[in-house]
Design a protein that fits this description.
five-stranded mixed beta sheet, D-Maltodextrin-Binding Protein, domain 2, eight-stranded mixed beta sheet, globular, Fructose-1,6-Bisphosphatase, Chain A, domain 1, 7 helices
Length: 272
């Protein structure tokens, strides 16, 4: 496959989907009853298994075979520079703790950037046998059924089911718990499943109404944020900033603003 920018976005997405499915099949086939933790990162709770590395190695290998000049940013092995204007953003297992314990919310997440803009993304939620995908400007889909995805609309804050997640560092968790204590009385309920990619896809599918989180990395949200946005959700940060590690909010227009205005006075981007 050529590295020229005239390659259609749909071809980039098709390649991402094929690779995400292959990596997912490998993970399911090779996952032992309790995968071994081979290292920790930001804290003892931020774990990495050998299969995180194996998944990323497979994904990087397949990208290089098809598009050797592209850059690749992966959670486990960092940035590999490329000569072109295309960069792949890879989370080989989003929700590693869930993967470790055999819980059903973990995923392979792959996004493709062109000139710094995410134009294609796929999230393969293996335990649920669901593959979510989006191409910028062409909608979001649950590929396993062919269903076009639409986030819920017209839901007021007090009736909204909100997903969130927690960081790994103790001080950040303390602040996140304080923020959550203010949010819970104002919404229908909270869901915390342990995978940002799965949360954003659940939002796109209308299974939750909103989502917020502090401290995500680009590989955590790049594919899922595009899928949510293409389902009709607004995705951003605090005070008009774009979504990023500082903060992420996603919901349908209207609910997004209500959720933002609930969160912003709580200073949720701080650390203890």
């Amino acid at each position: 496959m050529s590295n020229q920018l005239d390659v259609p976005r749909s071809e980039l997405l098709d390649l991402a989907v094929r690779i995400a499915k292959e990596a997912g099949d490998m993970l399911v086939a090779r996952r032992p009853r309790r995968p071994e933790i081979v290292e920790t990162k930001s804290s003892p709770t931020d774990v990495v298994t050998a299969l995180d590395h194996a998944s990323e190695e497979l994904i990087r290998g397949r990208i290089r075979e098809a598009r050797p000049a592209d850059a690749i940013l992966g959670e486990e092995d960092g940035l590999s520079d490329g000569a072109g204007r295309v960069r792949w953003i890879v989370d080989p297992i989003d929700g590693t703790v869930n993967f470790l314990y055999g819980l059903p919310e973990w995923a392979v997440s792959i996004a493709v950037e062109v000139d710094g803009e995410v134009v294609a993304g796929v999230v393969n939620v293996l335990p649920r046998k669901e593959v979510f995908a989006a191409e910028k400007g062409a909608g979001a889909y649950l590929l396993t059924t062919g269903e076009r995805l639409h986030c819920t609309t017209g839901v007021p804050l007090e009736e909204a089911l909100i997903a969130t997640g927690f960081g790994y560092e103790r001080g950040r968790r303390k602040v996140q718990a304080e923020v959550l204590a203010h949010v819970v009385p104002r919404v229908r309920d909270i869901r915390r499943v342990g995978s940002a990619a799965a949360d954003l896809c659940a939002l796109a599918a209308g299974r939750v109404d909103g989502y917020y989180e502090r401290g995500l990395n680009l590989w955590d949200y790049a594919a899922g944020a595009l899928i949510a946005a293409e389902s009709g959700a607004r995705v951003g940060g605090l005070h008009g900033n774009p979504v990023g590690p500082e903060f992420a909010i996603a919901a349908a227009p209207g609910l997004f603003e209500e959720l933002h205005d609930l969160l912003a006075p709580l200073d949720p981007a701080r650390d203890a």
